[in-house]
């Protein structure tokens, strides 16, 4: 069982004196290969209500990864603090702003937060191995993660894109309406890059070789473009592209299939989405989230026929939300959004190539986090699901045809 020190203190932040902590049980929720930046536990907390009747509260506990390689890679000492502040400060700020504009419960696509800490040391400024974040157990609320080897159908994709546009537009509208509050409560949390260190030369070389080797014969001519894009990752990390200022917003920065949970009706039609894992949020361009999500997480058969339609759909929802929040939409034309994509596509291409390998690693073949070494991270070629190859080749072909590389 996971040992979560002083869990009762965190729970008291949420319940106050209305419930008394008694005990808890915890077990690991996800298998190897399903999450890299943290440890996720299912926790059942036994509490007593004001009538001293027992109640079980089911939550998720998110803890730092046990492997120092992963902790360094995901900059856990900073990103864990950042995620706690996203729940404690950013989301409430945007919700309060939207409510002033007549839109209650604006951000309703994230789990409820029960509390968190970066350390047992109250003077700590960085997260350590005692950091923990307690969130709603979305599985108990009827949400599930879809198969990462397949991705989302068209209807589900549109639900997710609408919520993505709400997140981006909500922060943009707040920035323009309340610049001082935005700087204090949101921008100040995002001054540094979440992921400071680029992939090492060793990992980049493994990625380049394995990606080029997986190309279909008709795409082999693009090998130099792939090598160029992945070679430049280090430069992109040091000097990332900057958004047109009107588009600058909070981005999730890791919005792929495993960080999205869906609630379905009894006919398996998606009715609601929840986004999770806000560790690597940054201030950047919304097109980073848009491109990563589409090319890693939408069913390939859907993506082949709908890239332009989905880009247009997202833009329409962005404009609609900005208008609902009483924001001038004239600086946010579709043409301007396409300019953003041209600026960010080469950087995001490398991100996408890495993540489609993560998404298509065969289940059950990834090492435990505590055992991982650098060369295990991109996914060995023999461990890749058959769906990796057509998706990789579509991404390469589509980016080249669109002039994004």
From TrEMBL:
Keywords: Kinase, Transferase. Residues 133-324 form the CHK kinase-like domain. It holds the Pfam family EcKL. It comes from the Eukaryota. The keyword Iron-sulfur does not apply. One of its GO terms (molecular function) is kinase activity. PANTHER family: BHLH DOMAIN-CONTAINING PROTEIN, PROTEIN KINASE-LIKE DOMAIN-CONTAINING. This is Ecdysteroid kinase-like family. The lineage of its organism: Eukaryota, Metazoa, Ecdysozoa, Arthropoda, Hexapoda.
């Amino acid at each position: 069982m996971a040992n979560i020190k002083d869990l009762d203190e965190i729970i008291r932040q949420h319940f106050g004196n209305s419930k008394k902590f008694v005990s808890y049980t915890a077990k690991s929720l996800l298998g190897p290969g399903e999450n890299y930046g943290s440890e996720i536990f299912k926790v059942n907390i036994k509490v007593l209500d004001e009538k001293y009747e027992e109640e079980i509260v089911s939550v998720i506990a998110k803890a730092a990864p046990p492997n120092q390689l992963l902790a360094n890679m995901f900059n856990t000492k900073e990103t864990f603090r950042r995620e706690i502040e996203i729940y404690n400060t950013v989301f409430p700020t945007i919700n309060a702003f939207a409510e002033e504009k007549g839109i209650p419960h604006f951000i309703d696509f994230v789990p409820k937060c029960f509390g968190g800490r970066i350390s047992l040391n109250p003077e700590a400024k960085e997260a350590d191995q005692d950091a923990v974040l307690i969130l709603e157990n979305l599985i108990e609320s009827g949400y599930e993660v879809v198969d990462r080897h397949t991705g989302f159908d068209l209807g589900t994709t549109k639900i997710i894109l609408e919520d993505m546009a709400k997140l981006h537009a909500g922060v943009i509208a707040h920035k323009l309406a309340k610049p001082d509050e935005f700087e204090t409560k949101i921008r100040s949390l995002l001054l540094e890059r979440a992921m400071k260190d680029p992939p090492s030369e060793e990992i980049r070389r493994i990625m380049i070789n394995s990606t080029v080797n997986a190309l279909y014969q008709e795409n082999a001519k693009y090998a130099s473009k792939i090598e160029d894009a992945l070679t430049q990752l280090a430069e992109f990390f040091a000097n990332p592209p900057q958004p047109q200022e009107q588009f600058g917003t909070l981005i999730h920065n890791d919005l792929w299939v495993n960080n999205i949970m869906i609630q379905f009706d009894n006919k398996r039609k998606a009715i609601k989405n929840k986004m999770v894992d806000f560790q690597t949020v940054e201030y950047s361009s919304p097109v980073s989230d848009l491109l990563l999500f589409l090319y890693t997480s939408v069913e390939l058969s859907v993506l082949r026929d709908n890239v332009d339609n989905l880009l247009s759909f997202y833009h329409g929802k962005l404009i609609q939300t900005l208008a609902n929040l009483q924001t001038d939409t004239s600086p946010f034309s579709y043409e301007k959004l396409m300019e953003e994509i041209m600026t960010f596509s080469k950087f995001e291409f490398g991100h996408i190539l890495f993540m489609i390998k993560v998404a298509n690693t065969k289940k059950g073949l990834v090492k435990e986090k505590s055992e991982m070494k650098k060369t295990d991270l991109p996914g060995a070629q023999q461990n890749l699901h058959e769906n990796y190859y057509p998706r990789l080749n579509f991404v390469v072909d589509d980016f080249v045809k669109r002039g994004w590389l």
